[in-house]
Amino acid sequence: MTRFLPKSLIGQLLLLVAVTLLVAQAINIILLYRGAQNQKIIEASVSAVGRITGEIERMNDGRIRPPRRGREDRPRRRRNRPSMTAQSVIDPQHPRLPAVEDRAILAFENMGVVVQKVEAARVDRLPPALIDNVVGHGRGRLKALRAVGIRNRPDLTDGYILMAAQLRDGQWLNIAAVVRDRNPLLLRSLVVQTLVIYLILLLPLIWLGRNISRPLQALTRAAQNTQPGERTAVTESGPPDTRQLIAAFNAMNVRVDAMLGEKDVMLGAIGHDLRTPLAALRVRVESVEDDEQRQKMIAGIDDMDRTLDDILSLARLGRGDEAVLPTDISALIETVADEFTDQGKAVSFTRSGRITAPIRATLIRRALRNLIGNAVTYGQSATIIVEKPGDIPVDQRGDKQGDKLADKQGDKPVDNHAHKSGDKAGDKPADKYGDKLAIHIDDQGPGIAGDQIEAMFEPFARGETSRNRATGGSGLGLTLARAIMRDQGGDVTLENRPEGGLRATLILGV
């Protein structure tokens, strides 16, 4: 259900106003409709009470006309006048109207007419006994109106009100009154009224929403695209509250940039102040006569220097001066791989053509060094595989390199179901990486527990918890590699390979 709701603030506000207005108008329509229905019943009942009252007054005054000459034997027709019967014509099965009965008794009392009992009911069809005792057809009124040229739409009949009043002698006066639908287009009029209200209310709201949303969208884009060192001010527009928000954002951006500049100056001073004594200490260590102790001291100083360099690089990331230039990715990977093979490390990479992408080569080279260094340190070897958009992964092609890796694992069965899941290395890059370039670095190590993979990207986190520098680095290699890649629109991921070992993937836009 929530996916059909608008996600923007203005859309939700308009939806809320529209729903609230619809509910309010629906309640208004129901109340007006019920009021119109009650009004029709009241009008019909008033007509019935008036006819019965008039008939009782005629009887009391002796003004009942005798039958015309020559028609003494014919039954007298009492058209539009109450009929007199010994019993009420209202059947017990007719739906009674107690409220109408109470009002009718009160009306008779107010007019000085004495009745013993009043019965009232509403029916859809006129009973045969009252076919000539109906009030409200209004034939004379319609003829008079048409005679003067007024041709209103005739009223529609919406049932009948039956009323019976018992006199003091026990006789009943019975009459039927037509329930008229005075305005058959009431519902249509209310619907049109609702639409007009919607247009009058929602159109200004839509204009106001657009006037508010445009500056907010510009502010959102500026917040998403703000990079360290950039001072792009957002144009202040929209209502006063929105202008104040944009002005506050611009001021905050200036303060943040100033703080980052101060941080860079401070880090540069710290780096200079720390490296100078480290260099002096290195010179003094060279004079130590014990070769073993000298080598340990030099290794410790080098580790401190590398850790300091990693910390400064991580802190200064995003504010470097290196330009983004088209670079041959295969040549870059080959250069880094040769650095490790020259040191006797088991690193393999088969170049498969020229792959060019706009990158900061120095930073990407450093990220590759960190990942390959982790592979040869914890997994004894590193195999580098490049997947371009649309390529089939090596372990699905049955490549020789992939076969060699499988052979090293013995005859261990491979979980084919794992290749179908979205979290394994066998997925197609079209599903997993889209239009990105993926550089896989596979090792033959024990891997990492699934619930610990994301924790490895935290600063100073290491798979080997002894903190011994002989078994690993400072714990900043993965943190720095992921920060470098995300700064350039990519990422670094880790996953355990089905055939054993760990796969580190460097994802890069092309």
Strand content: 5-15%
Uncertain segments of ≥5 residues (pLDDT<50)?
A: 66-77, 139-154, 394-430, 465-471
Number of helices: 13
**Secondary-structure element pattern, one letter each:** HEHEEHEEHHHEHEEHEHHHHEHEE
Q: Separation of termini?
A: 38 Å
Report on this structure:
With 510 residues, this protein is α+β, with helices and mostly antiparallel strands. 49% of the residues lie in helices and 14% in strands. The protein is built from 13 helices and twelve strands. The strands form three sheets. Strands 1, 2, 3, 4 and 5 form a five-stranded mixed β-sheet that branches. A five-stranded mixed β-sheet has the order 7-9-10-12-11, with helices on one face. Strands 6-8 form a two-stranded antiparallel ribbon. Helix 5 (240-285) runs antiparallel to helix 6 (291-316) and helix 7 crosses helix 8. The two termini are 38 Å apart.
